[in-house]
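As practice, study what follows.
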Amino acid sequence: MRLSPSLFAADPLAWGGALDAVGPHADSWHFDVMDGRFAPAHGLNEAQFLAVKASSAHPIEVHLMTETPGDWPLRYARMGAALVAVHGETIDAPADLLNALRNAGARAFLAYEPDTSVDLIRRQAVHADGVLLLTAPQGGGAFREPALQRAADLPPGLPKIVDGGIGPEHFDFCRAHAVETVVVGRALFGRADPRARAGELSSLARRVRRQTAGSPSGLA
């Protein structure tokens, strides 16, 4: 299980220090792009993406929360995003866009709001490289347990990212249901010492990986 700090949750006036502090314990950076409509906030932008890319070797995983995808997914893929997640609720037929993302060199994921049904996710996920499950409202809000439980109802071989209010208390569940990546925001940057907290979370994630690798099924 991989650890992906959410840069949107970091102090924007101390980004450089945050990258240096938690980078040694991160597997990737989670990069939220919001339009102020699909999500009631404005997220990160292209200039910030390029700054992170120039200062860190970690892959950047972009989560687009926009009413319509427009050309944003391909723009970020062409700038070097390792993964781009676009909300399935905003696309009637996602296959063409997902193929274009792959051709641009990015993993092509579909993202889903906390209340989106497992039935819709299953239908669309056959076109995707994986899914991102929001476990709190887009733009911020309280963790929702039923939103996380959806991971148990999706195929174990489907790569999954969970994002929203995730903390170490959820790691064992994520391990049991083949979650590939956990996005950590407040659980990391909401602490007085993000460097120490990142080390703690990384140690827990490594323990979970060892347990998964050592189980007969790879999941239990």
